Amino acid sequence: MIRPLLFCTLLAASAPLPLLASSFAGTTAGSASGASSQGSSSSSDDDKVVQAAREEAAGFVASDGQLRGARLQAALLHLRQHDADAATASDMELARAILAR
């Protein structure tokens, strides 16, 4: 178990991150909505969805896209639904952005 995690960590640290990674992985459209009470809880929910997918994102990147988990798929869908930049990004770009958070 240690070897795959170490490999994923090393790969994620050495892989060049796309320039738009910080734009869609760190913020979401939910926090930019007009309702201030909804913005904070939506942002919190977004963080939970994306954070839950970090381990699967590492496996996805390390396997060059071969390993896909349900949490990663949910995070990719969530990011694409809530951010225009993420809607046009590849799965690999989004997975790397999740790891960069």
TrEMBL record:
Keywords: Signal. Residues 28-43 have a biased composition (Low complexity). Residues 1-21 form the signal peptide. It comes from the Bacteria. Residues 28-50 are annotated as: Disordered. This is DUF2388 domain-containing protein. It comes from Stenotrophomonas daejeonensis.
